[in-house]
Amino acid sequence: MNKEHYYKTTIQWTGNKGTGTSSYKDYERSHIISVEHKISIEGSSDPSFRGDQTKYNPEEMFLSSLSSCHMLWYLHFCSEAGIIVTDYIDEATGIMAETSNGSGHFTEVTLHPKVTVSERSMIEKAEQLHHKANEFCFIANSVNFPVKHIPIVLVK
């Protein structure tokens, strides 16, 4: 039997400067992303689309979702395999293509996880587990483009 998990988020637009969306330049793209019992996140659109560069945009949040999902599965599989990870950082990158009508889509995402393990004997298995994490990541399984990963595994 398959389980279903339900999620709820609230997005509240905060960019009305007094005249609403009376014209394309008369409103801000600012909004608040909130989930019950959690700290709110300030969002906007990408600066390329008249957004506030000091706030998170949907493209960054999407990329972060892929990266954190991969990391959480990876750490899980390492713990099961006896691989002791002492540090993990990922500088994920993504490419979004904007089409002639103004819409767009991501064409690829590449994760660049830099992992530190406690012993040299763990390196090979630690590298292999990135493939398994990619196969299990809920978010990666929900997209229609490749999620690549170029891991580096170091010993502390």
Automatic annotation (TrEMBL):
InterPro entries: KH_dom-like_a/b, OsmC/Ohr_fam, OsmC/Ohrsf, OsmC_Ohr_Peroxiredoxin. It comes from the Bacteria. This is Peroxiredoxin.
